[in-house]
Specification:
Elements (H helix, E strand, L loop, with lengths): L10 H33 L10 E3 L2 H9 L5 E5 L14 E7 L3 H7 L21 E4 L11 E3 L4 E3 L6 E2 L5 E3 L8 E2 L1 E4 L2 E5 L1 E3 L8 E4 L2
Antiparallel strand pairs: 1-11, 2-3, 3-4, 4-9, 5-6, 6-7, 7-8, 10-11, 12-13
Bound molecules: FE2/S2 (inorganic) cluster.
């Protein structure tokens, strides 16, 4: 007996099947896109195409840093916006050091200066006698801390360590601490929040507050 499927079909039956097939593919495509777009959006950093904005720093902590000698100071900053990872208004802080010997700093942080002494980043790393560091460990993004007993910064996640000038001393991080731009405007200290790609030796911007 001949299979019913091998029988010639009337034209309207064929076009109905074709329509059903195309409709199924279209609906599948729409569902796929609906799922893919948010997933892709979550993977792409929300980088403002402009420039990083200046963010005010806590006045008391800034005065504390100005009076500091050898101890790094953690300074709160006031986020009015967000980068690709932070939510607006989330508390944040940076680390500041007073640089008494710029030549030593430049020797220790040869990753930040060319042989001519010029900054390799597009902003001055040393400004008004201070340097600021992002609080984010360049290994995988944990928050490190200053250990006064050992006079070094240490990350609790995988043990990376950095000296007072932010130079990498030990652990899996592939670069020193990331410096941030600093300026003083009308007596108010301001910084720019920039987040660099983790793990790699070079500094690749992944997001900033714009
Ligand atoms: S995140 Fe700091 S050592 Fe791994």
């Amino acid at each position: 007996m001949q299979d019913e499927r091998s029988q010639p079909q009337p034209p309207e039956e064929i076009s109905r099947r074709e329509w059903m097939g195309k409709a199924t593919i279209s609906i599948g495509g729409i569902i796929g896109l609906t799922l893919a777009i948010p997933t892709m959006a979550a993977l792409v950093p929300d980088v403002d195409p402009g420039r990083p904005a200046w963010t005010g720093m806590d006045e008391t902590a800034w005065k504390h840093l100005q009076a500091a000698t050898d101890t790094p100071v953690q300074i709160d900053i006031q986020m009015h916006s967000k980068d690709a990872y932070l939510t607006a208004g989330s508390p944040q802080s940076v680390w500041g050091i007073k640089v008494k010997d710029p030549k030593k700093f430049m020797r220790d942080r040869s990753d930040l200066f060319a042989a001519s002494g010029e900054n390799t980043l597009p902003y001055p790393v040393l400004n008004i006698g201070f340097a600021l560091f992002s609080p984010i460990c360049p290994h995988l993004g944990c928050y490190y801390d200053w250990k006064p007993m050992f006079k070094r910064f240490a990350c609790p996640c995988h043990g990376s360590q950095f000296d007072r000038n932010g130079a990498h001393l030990a652990g899996p991080a592939t670069r020193g601490l990331d410096p941030l731009p600093l300026r003083e405007q009308d007596g108010i200290a301001q910084c720019q929040w920039i987040r660099y790609s983790p793990t790699v030796p070079s500094r690749i911007v992944v997001s900033y507050i714009g």
